[in-house]
Amino acid sequence: MTAQVTFWELFQYPFMQRALIAAAFTGFAAPAVGTYLVQRRLSLMGDGIGHVAVTGVALGLLTGTSPIWTAVVVATLGAVLIELIRARGHTNGDVALALLFYGGLAGGVLLIGLGGENAATLQAYLFGSLLTMSVSDVFVTMALSTVVILAGLGLAPQLFAVAQDQEFARVTGLRVGFYNVLVAVLAAVSVSVAMRTVGLLLVSALMVVPVATSQQLTRSFRTTLLAAMVLGAAASLGGLVLSAYLSVSFQPTVTPGPTIVLLALTGFAITWPVGALLRRRARLREPFPALPPPAHEPTEHAHQHGKDCGHAAVPHGDHVDYVHDGHRHAEHGAHYDEH
Amino acid sequence: MLVTTTSAELPVQLTGGSVAIGGRPVLRGIDLEVPAGQFLALMGANGSGKSTLVRALIGLRPLTSGRLTLFGTPIERFQDWSRIGFVPQRGGATSGVPVSVWELVASGRLNHRRLFRPLSRADRAAITQALDVVGLADRAGDGVATLSGGQQQRVLIARALAGEPELFFLDEPNAGVDLANQVSLATSLGRLKERGATIVLVAHELGPLASLVDRAVVMRDGRVAYDGAPLADHAVHGGAYGDAHTHHHHASHHEHDHVPVVRSPLEGGR
Description:
The complex is a heterodimer. Chain A is built from twelve helices and five strands. By secondary structure, chain A is α+β, with helices and mostly antiparallel strands. In chain A, a hairpin with a 2-residue loop joins strand 4 (327-332) and strand 5. In chain A, helix 6 (135-154) runs antiparallel to helix 9. The radius of gyration of chain A is 26 Å and the shape is elongated. Chain B has a single domain (12-246), classed as Rossmann fold. Chain B has a six-stranded mixed β-sheet, with helices on both faces. The longest helix of chain B has 16 residues, at 179-194. Classes of the chains: A alpha+beta, B alpha/beta. The interface between A and B is medium-sized, with 34 and 35 residues.
């Protein structure tokens, strides 16, 4: 990119258009699986798979095959292995994850060294290389992302039930083992696809951060899932455009991976206080148990409580208590009672 | 769905059932038959094996020896899971993502749904009815995490109800639940019982549920220590079963004699 190219002219270049398409697809796909991982409290599973995929990329570079396919294969094997260790070993799922983390990363770096590749080649996969995608790369990205999105949405009732409560799901007759492995495979595929967008070391962010953001404001699984997908796509596209803008305007080469992740995190930073405030308000307005007060205890109060008095009105049985400064005032004829 | 159960089709029949966890025997030589329409309370101290027994009865714990049939079918070949409803301990109500009450209850309907199909009208009706039975219809859109412990427990019951089962297993439904919610729980289970459901309930203490119980089985150290008429809570935990306390046990077995026995609780009125 040279200074002669303006920001808007950039969008006419095919490499930028390819990058935009790939970013949109991976942005939608990653949270579609990520939501199920967060639901099972396995947010770091994407990271574990990402590290294993490094070995896959190295194998691809070593043997001269397309790294995306070797990454899909090795990441899938790793994900299934994580799932099997988790299913057998009950509590030590995080240790299994850690073992694969390190094994995958070390194996990948070793293989790269054996193959005589330099570190810069690997860097493209570790931190993303959205702007160097070929036409066939884009088609592979579109196809695999579509598979992930269709499975994540189409099998939502089953995947939801299994991620929510495995034992209950088993008693409803679902093949729990199959769906567990399916989630692992979908996660492996979306990691491999998103490695070109944000890179293997940051891929988990695209799967998890949009979910964390959307759940600040949602009450149901369905809206969380859909909002996370929209947020993921928005962060991917926004981060790509932002990195392009920075590169064109200020000369440095900013890769899209970090800007995408930081943009997603900014979304979380904005919604978190709003979510915290809403949760606090909801807790404050939770009805009191409908038990009558122990004794009649009249109190004086300076002003008339009402809709606009600024004090929280909380249902209490058949009436309303006004909460302020540790008191609960209930209207009783001309005065207020302490409840 | 009105299923007629023949006498050969006992909902639960376990003969000589044993369970070992990690090689250590936890249940030994259990014989248990649960006839249709019975409300059975499985009681005992912590660690007596009552929860393990319920988990073995629904196939979550494999038997190391013995024979288990559900509705006359050996558990290994049992496929008819829509006849079974399971209410686990409350831990399973929340997860890492917000879940609405409606969604959680809808997941109990999966055994009636086919892949890639949206909820049918019958599914929606069953979910709404299940929420009505536990008295939480007005909270359908709320997040499960915002409910109290007792309400979460009732959501889990509604989830099992949505599948319209004939045979319920409940694991400690009133543990850690305040008295008001224990009473609404008892009301919900009373409705199920009236509709002819078979209920197997694990409890440390019965509380307001006591009046519903037809039969008590008390576990001690992995074996059945008592099997018979309902016991008062203090008798179960006093260590002496039967003799000294029989004056408490005049439970009525005639409560639903005039109600036709209908196997599917949600459609009992039709």
